[in-house]
């Protein structure tokens, strides 16, 4: 019996019953204060993962994608911080005012995710995304997402002997991943999905190529202060 076969047996029935659809997401906001700044855009991309074949990386499913710009009036007199953020993500006042009404847009996102509370949501430094999205959902729909959120940043750092890279840009450079347009939510979500695929051989080598193992690795790195 090969070690891959042994690895499959170690996964057990609980991992075999794990969600086969994963979601990578990214977003754009008016700033970097999760308690104050406003959600502007959400993009998400579905992945297909077969937990009975852990050596195979999750497959990107381009047909299973979501992208939305939310309506925002913005500030009447933009300050320096506002202008800096526009230069980063390119979402100006005119684009914000043409976005989808916030409650309708967030409901569309929830509907696209589907009803499964086990559906994993993955991203790079996803704790910020989680805080902003949950706050917006509470404000607009009086609800929160019960899904597990998995941060790929500590996973990347764990797999690197020096505990780097720290940013998505550094991680992309380290693994030779190109992004069509950084700080555009859909392009960043795709780059993050490709990063996960690039990490997969190292995860397989560590026998950590599974949903539960990813969760444990992310949680352990945070606990250690990574």
Automatic annotation (TrEMBL):
Coiled coil: none annotated. GO terms for molecular function: exonuclease activity; nucleic acid binding. Gene3D superfamilies: Ribonuclease H-like superfamily/Ribonuclease H. This is DNA polymerase-3 subunit epsilon. GO terms for biological process: DNA metabolic process. Residues 21-205 form the Exonuclease domain. Pfam families: RNase_T. It comes from Roseateles asaccharophilus.
């Amino acid at each position: 019996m090969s070690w891959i076969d042994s690895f499959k047996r170690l996964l057990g029935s609980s991992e075999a019953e794990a969600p086969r659809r994963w979601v990578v997401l990214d977003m754009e906001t008016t700033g970097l204060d999760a308690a104050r700044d406003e959600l502007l855009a959400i993009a998400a991309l579905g992945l297909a993962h077969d937990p009975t074949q852990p050596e195979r990386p999750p497959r990107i499913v381009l047909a299973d994608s979501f992208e939305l710009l939310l309506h925002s009036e913005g500030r009447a007199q933009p300050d320096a911080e506002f202008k800096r953020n526009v230069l980063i993500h390119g979402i100006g006042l005119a684009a914000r005012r043409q976005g989808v009404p916030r409650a309708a847009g967030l409901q569309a996102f929830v509907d696209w995710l589907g009803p499964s509370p086990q559906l994993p949501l993955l991203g790079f430094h996803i704790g910020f995304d989680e805080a902003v999205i949950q706050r917006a959902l509470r404000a607009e729909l009086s609800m929160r997402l019960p899904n597990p959120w998995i941060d790929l940043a500590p996973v990347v750092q764990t797999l690197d002997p020096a505990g780097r890279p720290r940013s998505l840009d550094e991680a992309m450079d380290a693994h030779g991943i190109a992004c069509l347009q950084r700080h555009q939510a859909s392009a960043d979500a795709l780059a993050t999905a490709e990063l996960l695929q690039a990490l997969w051989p190292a995860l397989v080598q560590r026998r950590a190529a599974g949903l539960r193992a990813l969760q444990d690795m992310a949680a352990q790195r945070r606990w250690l202060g990574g």
